[in-house]
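Annotators were shown the component list below and the corresponding predicted structure, then asked to write short factual statements about the assembly.
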Amino acid sequence: MHNSENIIEIKGLYKSFGKLEVLKGVSTEIKKGEVVAVIGASGSGKSTILRCMNLLEAPTFGEVWMQGQLLTPVDPYLHPEVIGLSNTYKRLIAGGLSHAEAIAQIKSEDLLNEKFAVAEGKAYKAKIKEIYKENHIDINLARQKMGMVFQQFNLFNNKTVLDNITLAPLKTGLYGGTKAEAKAVAQKRALELLERIGLAEKADSYPSTLSGGQKQRIAIVRALAMNPDVILFDEPTSALDPEMVGEVLDLMKRLANEGMTMVIVTHEMGFAREVADRIIFVDEGVIAEQGTPAEVFGNPQNPRLKEFLSKVL
Amino acid sequence: MYLITLAEDMGKIFVKYWDMFLIKGLSATILLSLLTVVCGTLLGAIFAVIKISRVKALSWIISAVVEVIRGTPMLLQLYISTFLIPVIVPAMNELENKKLICIALTLILNSAAYVSEIIRSGIEAVDKGQSEAARSLGLTSRTAMLQIVFPQAIKNILPALGNEFITVIKETSLASTFYVGELMTQYHKIVGTTHNPLPILMIIGIIYFVLNFVLSKGLGVFERRMKASA
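Structure shown to annotators:
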């Protein structure tokens, strides 16, 4: 049912913060090697989509899958066969509704809401448990293969640049072997990565001594050190001084050219147009339009997208 | 003129009773303060962990205790505890140091209440992005806490903890109401024979000041070193 060619698959994602509904049903797949740029106005929910992908925000409803494995709890609304086992469904069918009508009513009125789920019976709960057991993967394992780069860099202030890069590989046992062996491998790999971005001489510096551009490039390298299958970028250049934006975008371009799967929330339209395979335009918590850069920038359909592009281009 | 007389009296009284000031009084004050700060910090750390871990029932109880302690005068708490604890734990009445134990317990609980807030706010002051970055790399919440959050929180916590130590040293003087032997108790004892309060109070004041001044300067040096180390 789940194509493992898809690195990430999000289905029917809803997210509310208190009464504020930020995401209102977002579904998409990120394919292996794909570079996807997520654009949209501030507050449209684009960062929340990204943060739901690695569960830094837990979605209110919906599921996140990574390479065929489930990261979130099972959302019954996404599985008709699960709804079919619920007592609510049976009651509606007995009341004369068709299968499709019953499921539609349950979904639209949120009748399987956790508050009422107690009454749904054993078969329903067992099915949910079964799906969960078959597919679920521990979030910490999933995150090891899903790097993230933050707007505010978030380098570990209490660690040197080298330790920033080697901490996660060592603590997660990425390299195996004895402690000393793993440490040697991790440091060698970290230095190679630093070499690539021309910052090897900063290995023993603390983050507070670095410029924003240097911090962000090191943050990218820190994610790379885990050999991730995908990297999520949350407005990676928004907190940078203008003269440092280029160096970070250049590094990202290199990664894209090397075939890294990337999801990039960005305001850099020129970069998105040049590097992305697909553009997703998010508006008011839904994907309002998506397509190739040529389609989205050259021939936008959605009026909100047209308005947005007229402001930013 | 009076100041000269005062200085002379201070000199005479100190020469005569120096052991009561320095050996009995100061050591009792330091011991009581150390005991309070060490146990108070441990208990306070436990309180803070419970509050952060969001075990709801426990966290609610801790919050209530902290609020009551912060919202009532310490002297009142000391009075209440010396009456209340022996009622709750009758075995206490057998003990010789009943009062001292009650007072130490009150001081410890009091300190724990303040320390738990110091630790909690110290941890919460660490940028949320730090633990998010750690979690995004697949580290467990435990590793993120131990490797990233705590080491940074310590830098917020230690200076405030030093101030708490100084506050505790001063607060132990309240225990003199119950004659437990610390510096202010020595005042009550000495004034009973000399009937000349001011020189004794001045001497005790100087001792407290020197103690706290040295301590706060020492903490300052420590703090600067810690900052330099990253």
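Statements collected:
1. Chain B touches chain A through 18 residues (CB under 8 Å).
2. Chain B has one domain: 2-229.
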